[in-house]
Amino acid sequence: MKQLSIKLFALLMAAILASPTLPAQRRENRGGTESQDPLSGISMNGFRWRSIGPALTSGRISDIAVNPQNHSEFYVAPASGNVWKTTNAGLNFEPIFDNEGSYSIGCVTIDPTNPSVVWVGTGENNNQRSVAYGDGVY
Fold first, then answer.
1. DSSP state of 109
2. CA-to-CA distance for 21 and 11, rounded, in angstroms?
């Protein structure tokens, strides 16, 4: 089950990286400086969204927050727990919510005035066959 969640998460990240904003950013970086995008030479054009059928209650992504000043840094909030941070466009992730009181995550957002501040709303906002209540906003 964990392997399936990891594969779904990787597919979601690949779809995000295939968004039209990244090629535009790459064109801007061609002005004599080397691109800071670690995936600049990889094309994700072959990936397409498709239905994979009914899903179990695990593996759902509740929210994603991308740093508007650095698109290689983003936070992913799975409904089933933790908040994951990447600083290299999804090549590596680290858990940043391990020691908090709630495991279920409903949303994550970056403060629009200070990208060093990340807000996490606990509690699942997509009630399916199971539900986990949160304990507030961190």
1. E
2. 18
Number of neighbouring beta carbons within 10 Å of residue 57: 14
| β-strand partners of 65 | 75
- Measuring CA to CA, how many Å separate 40 from each of 31, 90, 115, 125, 137? 14, 13, 24, 35, 36
Question: In the chain, what is the straight-line distance between the N-terminal and C-terminal CA atoms, in Å?
Answer: 28
Tell me the per-residue pLDDT of 24-57, one tens digit each, with 9 for 90 and over.
444 554 555 555 777 677 777 787 877 766 655 5
pTM: 0.59
CB 131 within 8 A of CB 57: no
Asked if 130 and 57 count as a contact pair (C-beta separation under 8 A), the reply is: yes
What is the number of other CB atoms lying within 10 angstroms of the CB of residue 40? 15
Beta bridge partner(s), residue 85: 75, 94
Chain centroid, CA 23 distance in Å: 19
